[in-house]
Amino acid sequence: MHILLVASAFNSLTQRVHAELRDRGHTVAVELALPGNPLTRAVPRHTPDLVLAPLLKTAIPRQVWAAYPCFVVHPGPVGDRGPSSLDWAIQEGAGRWGVTVFQAEEEMDAGDVWASVACQVPPVAKSDLYRGEIADAALAAVTLAVERFADGTFTPLRQNAARTRPYLDQSVRRIDWHADSTRTVVRKLRAADSQPGVRDVLLGEEWYLHGGHPEERLRGAPGGLLATRAGAVCRATGDGAVWIPELRRPRRPGGPATFRLPAVQALGDRLPRLPELPAPPDADPRTWTDIRYREEGGAGFLAFSFPGGAMSTAQCRRLLSAYRQACARPTSVLVLGGRRDFFANGIHLNVIEAAADPAAESWANINAIDDLVEAVLTTTDRLVVSALAGNAAAGGVMLALAADEVWCRAGCVLNPHYRLMGLYGSEYWTYTLPRRVGAATAGRLMREALPMSARSALGLGLVDRVVDCGPEDFAGEAGRLAARLASLPGTRSRIAAKKAERERRESGGPLSAFRERELAEMHRAFHDPDAPYHALRRAFVRKEKPPRTPPYPARATGCRTGAEDHPR
Question: What sequence ranges are listed for the domain Formyl transferase C-terminal (predicted)?
Answer without folding.
Answer: 170-250
